[in-house]
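PROTOCOL LOG
Step 1. Enter all chains and additional molecules of the complex.
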Amino acid sequence: MELDERKLKILQAIIRTYLDTGEPVGSRTISKYSDLKLSSATIRNEMADLEEMGYILQPHTSAGRIPSDKGYRLYVDTMLEAKESEVNSLREEIEEKAGKLDDVLKQVAKFLAKNTNYATMVSAPRYQTKHVKFIQITSVDPEHLLVVIVLDNNIVKNKMIRVDAEVEEEMIVKLNFILNTTLNGLDLVEINLVLIQKIKEQMGAYGAVIDSVLDVIGKTLVDEEDPEIYTSGATNILKYPELSDKSKAAEIIGAFEDKETFHSWLGLPDREMNSDTHDIQVYIGDENHVDSMKDCSMVTATYQIEEGVYGKIGIVGPKRMDYDKVVGTLNSLMGQLDDIFKEK
Amino acid sequence: MELDERKLKILQAIIRTYLDTGEPVGSRTISKYSDLKLSSATIRNEMADLEEMGYILQPHTSAGRIPSDKGYRLYVDTMLEAKESEVNSLREEIEEKAGKLDDVLKQVAKFLAKNTNYATMVSAPRYQTKHVKFIQITSVDPEHLLVVIVLDNNIVKNKMIRVDAEVEEEMIVKLNFILNTTLNGLDLVEINLVLIQKIKEQMGAYGAVIDSVLDVIGKTLVDEEDPEIYTSGATNILKYPELSDKSKAAEIIGAFEDKETFHSWLGLPDREMNSDTHDIQVYIGDENHVDSMKDCSMVTATYQIEEGVYGKIGIVGPKRMDYDKVVGTLNSLMGQLDDIFKEK
DNA sequence: TGTTAGCACTCAACTTAATGGAGTGCTAAT
DNA sequence: ATTAGCACTCCATTAAGTTGAGTGCTAACA
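Step 2. Run joint prediction.
Step 3. Record the structure below.
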């Protein structure tokens, strides 16, 4: 059977209506609503075909039809209208909270949740390559050394370490020199035991301090592997009856709470992305790789802070989410984010 | 009417049973359950009295009784058994994740939520007095200066600032010297325009850099005002039918998401606390100052990291929460936290 | 005088049956 | 190819009945 123009139009009408109401939609509704001048009987025939083809389904005999995952998929792939959304306010909202990236991302999550009425999450960028650019150790007071590490992407980490006895100024200078010359430009895997041993030898009695320092460096580099995720509007899920069933809702909202969940699949763009399109992806129902999301749809987009530094944004809602609006908002948002990051 | 021993025992039995089942409890149940050897009829008489006194109430005629807020209050104040809970695992669980305070607190929130099956939040400590202890400026690369600020509680903050032209080594040394001698020991309000002007004069052409640096300092000190709050187990709320009504649940879980909510009332201990008791407080129903929590109970405790540095822990659940267990767990937890912080 | 057995009464919760209506599939007419 | 018409299905809603846990009251009892 072929999916001709008319069938497509009817399918589109069905999905549109369903997105609106969340109720199964019947032939009569379509007959009246859509601009095709067809009787309900004709629509019924077409619907039967569409059902056979797997684009729509009936919750039970004598009910209207609802889109299947396959139907949604077709809709998203071919029928989205590129409606330009007006997301102008965001820019100002974000910029007044200037400051750190964390804050910006938190704002973005909040903004999206508020605007779309779905649940959102934003992953902080994951830096692919991390090399030590600069290390500095300072004596803050007799009992504490401060270790500051700058990575080659200008991320700064610091940690206090406690020492038993004051370390002489002279030793600190030496320590700084050795660490910087030895470790500069290296990444985590390149700092191996041989190297560590070599440094320790040079420092003689202060070998113990070295251990602490290297420990900090190790933690720092590993730490970066683990990007922060900001979420907002998880309770929006409760607004959609088809998801607000107690056990489902708990599972979904729980997933938002336990941010670990997202790491695996929100982590990195699957493939080299075209930085113009922002790689907006839609996952419908079973297309989600996580069980707890199989009754939801999720739209993700990738943003870029600088060369090789990506983060992701995800929006989770019911399968009947307003894809038009979400994709539009996301698109417009990405553009503004680009601008913001370019300025920095 | 007087609240004699027997009435108290009956009330206690009622509350215990209700905490268990969540169902209104009838006279017959009590007559069988409790060790007082009384017939249901007698219990009924006493119940009528207890109701008149306001300790229990009937959802409707011909239903059993449930505790009123006043009843819970009496129970909590006088009838809690000091059951020692076995919270031994926590210590290890936390310590292997050693590291930063943030991580510890996150762990604590998670641990509590998992153990109690209620929703929990932990506020990071708020430092009352913040003075600059140490400032260090370093040239990381020709375009970037790194500003590191250590506060007197050993909190470290850092920020990169971009400069148009490389700053000479000599100037940086001078800058460090001036900043440290001038600002050491001062807090935010003490750094005023007069002082700023004075510093600028000394730095001559590098006045602009000073601005950036002071900006960072300002942001750092203000930032600390705003304590982080870690939450966990918000979805546990959905486990209790009396709270999992859609609108209620959304309100409560939403409150957990929007952490701002808690600042006002989770902020600081109300009064000078006895560091032994950890100031465990129970708020029942309307006793909560926040509307969205009026159907819940909340137990809070205060922990101390060092002299004058407090944080709070809160557990939110249904009014029929297992106060015994919560207070016990909290108590035991606080002890362990004390130990952990003492070590540091 | 405090306790208890007994009984009539109440009321939410559950069960069952009846009704209505939205929607379908099929057939025959256009 | 399209449509009007009709019989059929099945969910949702309502109404009526049934059940059972629980109460309050009274009268008997120790």
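Step 4. Note key features.
Chain B has twelve helices and eleven strands.
Residues 24, 26-28, 40-41, 44-45, 47-48, 58, 61-64 of chain B lie near DNA strand D (CB under 10 Å from a C1').
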